[in-house]
């Protein structure tokens, strides 16, 4: 069942060009929305409209709602590129049955920066009479607060080993080929956690990832589910992981070994196939590189494939993610069997971890990632959050190695929360 917000009121939208800010993220007011990569992207705050949704149709409902909102909006846009004019930010639960559901939020104010060009958008539900200045819209927000001491659980190693061993057994029995198992750890601060402080750390440590905060889900994800930009679609598939040692020569040798590893290649191919099949149905042609590349991040190296295509009938970013989710990078192969094994073995509600998170504009362009390397902030207590990490399990997986991999994937959030990690 889904809960639709009151039917959308016509929104009045104005986008103007502004001087490029030195530091986009530094403008973010408390609790603001963030979508920042390599210093560029969108930040937003306030709320002009919202959809809350849940269930198997959650992304379809968001798509239908967004079409209604955009059809009725009055937009004056001086900049006219992806992310200007009317935009909404959203995040959706991984599982159809999760109580976390999903939401689309139309903010009141947006600042965007792309290729040196910056803009300010104001979205108003009550008719826009005067355009406020950016300074007035920002108000005098307090600077980001230092983090309180935060205790982070270690997690249950035995429970993990048992779950991974059962998954390997079921793969061996022919029930499925791959399943992604995840675990959650609880973080509890002595006081509220200022999400801006966390985002600043994530953006500094992981500049090539998307430092995001949408409706209480915060993280730095490397995985692009779909970017739609003027008829072009791009998806970056990641699957197959090892941990760097810090020794550059050794790491290059490890990266080469990762690219040759049959276990990692198998895991990767399942994920690439699941994304390519969906995009092929919407594109005249899809380009898939023959060989994956290796994406180097400070905490992990991943096999990566950028799948690209030219859309043949203008599918919107929401239409595409509805079909792309859940890809084999976060669920498994075959999808239904893997979802079933996840339900049985994981013992957690993933909430919006590993679900789609991103933004869409009125033209249907947008950028949606998979909500990885992330934490869900407790809606009733901002000093508490759950951190998540998962690993693709195939026949050749080993529970100990998968534990180490999940630890590496928890590292970005642990470090951003002030934990000191031994290399
Ligand atoms: C599930 C996660 O990551 C996914 C799983 C990967 C793997 O198993 O190798 C790699 C990248 C992601 O697609 C996570 O970070 O929690």
Count of DSSP strands: 23
Low-confidence stretches: none
In angstroms, what is the radius of gyration?
Answer: 21 Å
Secondary-structure arrangement, i.e. CATH architecture: 4-Layer Sandwich
**CATH topology, what is it called?**
Anthranilate synthase
Q: CA-to-CA gap between the ends?
A: 46 Å
CATH class: Alpha Beta
Proportion of residues in β-strands: 25-35%
Tell me about the largest β-sheet: 13 strands, mixed
Overall pLDDT confidence:
94
Overall spatial form: globular
Helix content: 25-40%
Bound molecules: ligand ISJ
Structural class: alpha+beta
Q: What is the domain tally?
A: 1
CATH homologous superfamily (4th level) name? Anthranilate synthase
Domain Chorismate-utilising enzyme C-terminal: 157-409
Pfam families: Chorismate_bind (PF00425)
Catalytic activity: chorismate = isochorismate
GO molecular function, one term: isochorismate synthase activity
